[in-house]
Amino acid sequence: MRTQDLMVVEGSRHQPHDPICPDGVELAINRAIHAGYRVGREVLVGHVAGSVVGYNIGHYGRFSGARYPLLVKTEFGVAKCSLQEVAAA
Predict the structure, then answer these.
(1) Is 10 part of a structural domain of the chain?
(2) Structural domain of residue 82, as residue ranges?
(3) Which residues of the chain, if any, have pLDDT below 50?
């Protein structure tokens, strides 16, 4: 299995989190994992090859993890992707 460096991005949480009731981001990430999109999985974003390198845990902004749970590395960089935008390679 190939290895790659991970980058830690510092953030802050504005709302308390209830671990009993998962939020939209957690649900979207769990759906992606259960659909087979685990870290390291080779995928296609349209016709561009890439691989899943992580999951988008962002709760705010235009590209939140609830809508775009996958982080996919392609030759053009890392993209936040929805499950509808990727296919298994």
Answers:
(1) no
(2) 24-88
(3) none
